[in-house]
Amino acid sequence: MTACAHPTTPPAPGISQEPNARLSERPLIVKPAQGEMREWRPLPGQASAGTGWGNFNLFTIKIDRQHGGSPDAWFGTEDMPPGAEIPLHRHLHEDEVLYIPSGIAHAHVGALEGDAPGGSLIFVPRNTWVSIKNVGKTTIRLLFAFNAPGFDRYMRCESVTAGHKALPLDTQEDARCTKLGDVQYR
């Protein structure tokens, strides 16, 4: 297996992937069908991607270092069909904001637990355990934002560009991606 420290999608023009390179921030208008569309790879022991995540496997990175040149914030979307769940996890170094535009999600955030109907925001401070489940009857277009890079590395490491063959992860690669992305799962 190859290391997954690099994304499979080339950077936007004018953006360097060099870790110490000065980034060229620029404004963007990102339309709904635009962005870096990616597909989760099956986790160890899964027959297909999404089986452990409630049968959803596509997400889109909209703004980050590669798309817009932001050295700090990044933003993405993910469709969660009814019953889909993001398992309990925490981001070690990043704050996260989740926006539920429609539908209803059930959230566990630190010591809080409750339903988040359409229009709700969920703030997840760094190092706080969180899980989200779509308990409604319609797909939720989950919007997520982070104040710092980190989890984007995990997401790219554990996925492929949409439309490419999503080979299963082995246990060592999954552990490497988790460490790379500053995230822990229970």
Task: Describe the structure concisely for a colleague.
This protein has about 190 residues and is mainly β. It has one domain (about 35-185): Sandwich (Jelly Rolls).
Corresponding CATH architecture: Sandwich
- Computed CA radius of gyration, to the nearest angstrom: 16 Å
Fourth CATH level, the homologous superfamily: Jelly Rolls
Oligomeric nature of the chains: single chain
The helicity comes to under 10%
Order of helices and strands: EEEEEEEEEEHEHE
Question: How does the SSE layout of this entry go?
Answer:
Elements: E1 36-40, E2 58-63, E3 74-80, E4 85-91, E5 96-100, E6 104-109, E7 112-117, E8 120-124, E9 130-134, E10 140-146, H1 151-157, E11 159-161, H2 171-180, E12 183-185
Antiparallel strand pairs: 1-2, 1-11, 2-3, 3-10, 4-9, 4-12, 5-8, 5-10, 6-7, 6-9
Helix pairs in contact: 1-2
For the structure shown, list the relevant keywords.
186 residues, mainly beta, Jelly Rolls, seven-stranded antiparallel beta sheet, five-stranded antiparallel beta sheet, 9% helix, 35% strand, globular
Describe this structure in words.
Helices cover 9% and strands 35% of the residues. It is built from two helices and twelve strands; from the N terminus they run ββββββββββαβαβ. Helix 1 runs antiparallel to helix 2. Residues 1-21 have low confidence and may be disordered.
